[in-house]
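2024-03-11 09:14:02 INFO worker-7 job=invfold-0412 stage=load source=structure_tokens
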């Protein structure tokens, strides 16, 4: 990667082309995801009093949909190479103590359809690195246990927040974040798009999208029908 960056702008001969070369590089290597926004409790003032702040989260079910439909090559490499690989994984894990009486065992053809996932959370100094006033950032990421590639390629960012800004306790920062992620994972397991939000409320936007889809479908059908009649 260093050699690639050093070669931008023909190795510095044409510095005006560096920006163009970077964008070309990003189009080849970066996967773009849809962010979802939620109100998360955080400490928002200089005195670190609690408040509600809009935060971006990559929802697992949105991530999977985006990869499957728009980045099939990345899907096959990082998430699910094939159903045969899934079967091999679950067969190798069938005698693991955690699989005993697991609800997954009651699912039909689960070995061919269920992708094993791992969610990883870790803290890292993000500002003031090596100083006593360093600030820690906790990052949540998601990876498939059957995907392949480097750590950077396999792990997908979900959410991150500075530790000092977190509100503790029930209905605090992490309680809210994990409630949202659990809701997303539940719909991912169902294999359907949510019709309710993480608080159990009917998703008005999903209903509007379905109505719009039906409206557009019938408009196109009517135009097609009338066009054929006129010919």
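2024-03-11 09:14:09 INFO worker-7 stage=emit residues=231
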């Amino acid at each position: 990667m260093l050699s690639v960056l050093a070669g931008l702008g023909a190795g510095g001969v044409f510095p005006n082309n560096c920006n163009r070369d970077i964008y070309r590089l990003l189009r080849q290597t970066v996967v773009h995801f849809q962010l979802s926004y939620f109100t998360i409790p955080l400490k928002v003032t200089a005195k670190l009093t609690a408040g509600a702040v809009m935060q971006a989260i990559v929802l697992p079910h949105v991530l999977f949909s985006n990869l499957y439909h728009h980045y099939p090559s990345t899907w096959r490499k990082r998430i699910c190479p094939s159903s045969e690989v899934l079967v091999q994984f679950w067969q190798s894990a069938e005698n693991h103590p955690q699989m005993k009486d697991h609800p997954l065992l009651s699912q039909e053809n689960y070995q061919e359809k269920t992708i094993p996932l791992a969610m990883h959370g870790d803290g890292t100094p993000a500002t003031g690195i090596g100083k006593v006033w360093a600030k820690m950032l906790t990052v949540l990421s998601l990876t498939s246990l059957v995907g392949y590639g480097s750590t950077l390629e396999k792990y997908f960012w979900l959410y991150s927040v500075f530790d000092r800004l977190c509100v503790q306790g029930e209905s605090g920062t992490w309680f809210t974040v994990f409630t949202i992620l659990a809701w997303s994972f539940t719909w991912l397991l169902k294999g359907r798009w949510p019709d309710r939000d993480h608080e159990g409320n009917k998703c008005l936007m999903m209903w509007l999208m379905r109505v719009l889809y039906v409206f557009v479908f019938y408009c196109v059908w009517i135009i097609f029908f009338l066009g054929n009649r006129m010919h």
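2024-03-11 09:14:09 INFO worker-7 stage=report msg="The chain has ten helices and five strands."
2024-03-11 09:14:10 INFO worker-7 job finished
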